[in-house]
């Protein structure tokens, strides 16, 4: 499955459009990652715990969006957009959303 932010794929023609596909992944940040991030906020540095959580959520969202496009008979998703939000009363949840247009490419 080709997933791209562009509206075309070099060297391939779009044969048909199969609609917009979406995916949302919401993940909780545990208290240990939160404590580590708090320390890094005070003293500086990168928060590997948050970075890894974000990476995993992003990969899951793209993979599931690709599966949804495949279920529609598509072989690519173009025009992909991604967004991030913090949720929950204590901002302890991270949401990654992505959307794009499912298309079939000519051979």
Automatic annotation (TrEMBL):
<dbReference type="Pfam" id="PF01906">
    <property type="entry name" value="YbjQ_1"/>
</dbReference>
<dbReference type="InterPro" id="IPR035439">
    <property type="entry name" value="UPF0145_dom_sf"/>
</dbReference>
<comment type="similarity">
    <text>Belongs to the UPF0145 family.</text>
</comment>
<protein>
    <recommendedName>
        <fullName>UPF0145 protein CBF29_04000</fullName>
    </recommendedName>
</protein>
<dbReference type="InterPro" id="IPR002765">
    <property type="entry name" value="UPF0145_YbjQ-like"/>
</dbReference>
